[in-house]
């Protein structure tokens, strides 16, 4: 019998030990689509499906013949049918390779609806400069930022900041650990561009499309430096699960929150 020592406990190696969350965090080659759906028939679910298939091709995953759109839709529906009725469902669809290189998937329902009722606020943010992301990484996968986010969370545990900002090797703003970022300069909304190495998720693209429909604001994707933060009127962090979070301060610069409520209504 093969034994392992886990936190001082001697256990049989074949005993189930880790939760699905623990296992997936230790799995580096996973692809994730995070979704906010009002119903499985939403047109946006098709965008998530094709984004996942595209990422699997880029990373040379062998796509099982069963991974059709109808299969994707049916499996999401099966999970939703087990849940209480809600205005929106927040789901993670994760695809990964097991030890035998066989493709497996996990769909997780997240109870984060409270984050989309009220805007939350972050007292202060700081730059995370210990390690930098690559601007040349694949823009359709979280693989290139997951480890960096975990390292940055370690930085946060030692410092009194509400969040920290990740940079690429050119010292351009990439994202915060809690989500993507928007800087507002009067009626201009600026977001990090895809050339910076930002994750070009289905959710992010849908937010940009909705911003373009606003008559009072002009959105654009561009390269943003840390110095741009100090010139901005408003600083927002947004995420499909975390909702909208307004930043109150960066160094000596403080921000207002006039656009945050508008964005909350969009996502």
Brief summary of the model shown:
This protein has 267 residues and is an alpha+beta fold. The protein is built from 7 helices and 16 strands.
Strand and helix layout:
Layout: E1 3-6, E2 9-12, H1 20-25, E3 30-37, H2 44-58, H3 69-81, E4 89-97, E5 103-110, E6 120-122, E7 125-133, H4 143-157, E8 163-168, E9 173-176, E10 180-185, E11 188-192, H5 202-211, E12 218-222, H6 226-229, E13 234-239, E14 243-247, E15 249-250, E16 253-254, H7 260-266
Structural summary, described in words:
This protein is α+β, with helices and mostly antiparallel strands. It has two domains: 3-111, Aminotransferase class 4, branched-chain amino acid transferase, N-terminal domain (D-amino Acid Aminotransferase, Chain A, domain 1), CATH 3.30.470; 120-266, D-amino Acid Aminotransferase, subunit A, domain 2 (D-amino Acid Aminotransferase, Chain A, domain 2, Alpha-Beta Barrel), CATH 3.20.10. It contains seven helices and 16 strands. Strands 6-14-13-10-11-12 form a six-stranded mixed β-sheet, covered by helices on one side. Strands 3-4-5 form a three-stranded antiparallel β-sheet, covered by helices on one side. Strands 7-8-9 form a three-stranded mixed β-sheet, with helices on one face. β7, α4 and β8 (163-168) form a beta-alpha-beta unit. The longest helix is centred in the first third of the chain and has 15 residues, at 44-58. The mean pLDDT is 85.
